[in-house]
Amino acid sequence: MAGHAGRSRGHAVIQCGLFSLLMGLIGCDLQPTPPPGLDLSATPACHQHGIPAVVLSEQDPARAIAAALQTHELVLLGEHHGDVAEIDFLIEVLGQIDRPTILAMELLPQTVTDTAPWSSIVGDKYWPAPLHISEYEGILAAVQAARDRGVDLQFAGLAPDCRLPERPTSTHRAAAIACFKERDAFMVERLHVLRRGHPTHAVLISAGWRHVTGVRLRGAAQTLGQLVPAHWSALRVLLAGTEARASGAEATCQGTPRALAAAVGHPVLLDTTNTRWSLDHCLDTPTERPLSDAFDQVVGLPKGPAPTALDTAFFETIPATHRAAWTRTRQVLMNQNTPDSSPAQLAQWAAEDVSRLTGQLAAESIDCPKPQR
Q1: What burial letters (b/e) apply to 353-370, b meaning 16+ CB within 10 Å?
Q2: DSSP, res 116
Q3: What CATH number has the domain bearing residue 205?
Q4: Helix (H, G, I), strand (E, B), or coil: what is residue 174?
Q5: 371 part of a folded domain
Q6: Among 267, 201, 276, 195, which residue's Cα sits nearest to residue 238?
Q7: Considering Cα of 30, then 255, then 225, then 91, what sign does the dihedral take?
Q8: What is the rounded distance in angstroms from the CA atom of residue 187 to the CA atom of residue 185?
């Protein structure tokens, strides 16, 4: 996979003899002792073994990701939309960046300008989710804070504008559907444009993990992570959040990254090179290829706070033309009726959707699965 050869190794790899209790490394015969300050006694036993390789940065993971921007042209963060712990981690990374960088986000359309108010940025989307989580606005504040420190940090949207015009026809609907299906290819072209305009900048990409993966998922089109040119040095990082599987909410990689982060009280950086984990073991996908084919690293995060929904006052700042465009998206593309596009109605929808997401996050468990009888 592109990027493996150029992967930064500026991290301290946990040594077999000292940490095999945590790692479960094959071929370790020494009696292990846990690293100082790492108490695994409260960690479920299934998470204390079977992790073939863990890289704990000499710095914190946010600093390690920022440092990777010094050695890679692209660093891709694969997120779970609406996870506040992941949003906070991205904000931490932005706080560590000290070189010219472009923050390019899949959640934002290419039309976005970072001089516009957040309400205008949200309004430019074809549908507000998942930016109806108010914590996303903190990213814009973090960009400005970096600039105040003197960092040349640009802010760009990657997604095509798939909005429907007024009185859409079947032709418009078909074009919008094609726009969504081809958005990964569009995002790569957008990256080419951004890099031509800023040839000395590294690019930090924030996108859903399905776009970041370096392998094709079953039944899906080629991903952004696949389509990135091979001569671009790229690091693909999976943020461990919550998988909304049909069987219920489950922490990424069956909870091991989350459990390790909980054990040490802060995010941890896991290297996938020698792991036996597969994609379907870690993520909500039937793809059975090794996780290391798709991602170079995994960031385990402690569980974050519940998300906060945008309220009526916020939606009142969205122009009526944008709110009407959202209604067209919901009716024509999602086949969902909505009474109106009023701020109060949108706030009610946001509250209900965030309540659903909060319940999903709360239901996530990192306990070991019960043995089958």
Answers
A1: bbeebbeebeebebeeee
A2: S
A3: 3.40.50
A4: helix
A5: no
A6: 267
A7: negative
A8: 5
Q: What are the distances in angstroms from CA 342 to CA 235, 328, 336, 349?
A: 42, 13, 16, 11
In a domain, 179, yes or no: yes
Q: What is d(CA 122, CA 116) in angstroms, rounded to the nearest whole number?
A: 10
- Strands (E) in the chain, as ranges, are 12-13, 55-56, 74-79, 101-109, 153-159, 202-208, 234-240, 242-245, 248-251, 268-271, 297-300
Window from 24-28, 146-150, 259-263 with minimum mean pLDDT = 24-28
Listed residue (255, 273, 291) closest to 43, CA to CA: 255
- Does residue 247 fall inside a structural domain? yes
Structure tokens at 185: 């290819």
Confidence band (pLDDT; 50, 70, 90) for 360? Answer: confident
Q: Which two tokens stand for residue 339?
A: 């009474």
Q: How far apart are CA 340 and CA 92, in angstroms?
A: 38
* Residue 113 lies inside a defined structural domain of this protein: yes
Could you give the CA distance from residue 265 to residue 338 in angstroms, rounded to a whole number? 43
Vertex 102, ends 97 and 104: CA angle to 5°? 115
Which DSSP state fits 166? S
How many Cα atoms are found within 13 Å in the side-chain-facing hemisphere of 309?
Answer: 19
Q: pLDDT tens digits, residue range 67-103?
A: 999 999 999 999 999 999 999 999 999 999 999 999 9
Q: What are the start-end ranges of the E strands in 264-360?
A: 268-271, 297-300
Interatomic CA distance for residues 154 and 174, integer angstroms:
33
Integer angstrom CA distances of residue 357 from 84, 89, 350: 11, 19, 10
Q: How confident is the model at residue 8, as a pLDDT?
A: 38
Count how many domains the chain has: 1
Distances (CA, A) of 153 to 64, 131, 187: 18, 21, 19
Strand partners, 15: none
pTM of the model: 0.87
Pick the closest to residue 131 from 326, 309, 306 (CA basis): 309
Q: Which residues contact 23 (CB under 8 A, 6 or more apart)?
A: 14, 16, 51, 52, 53, 54
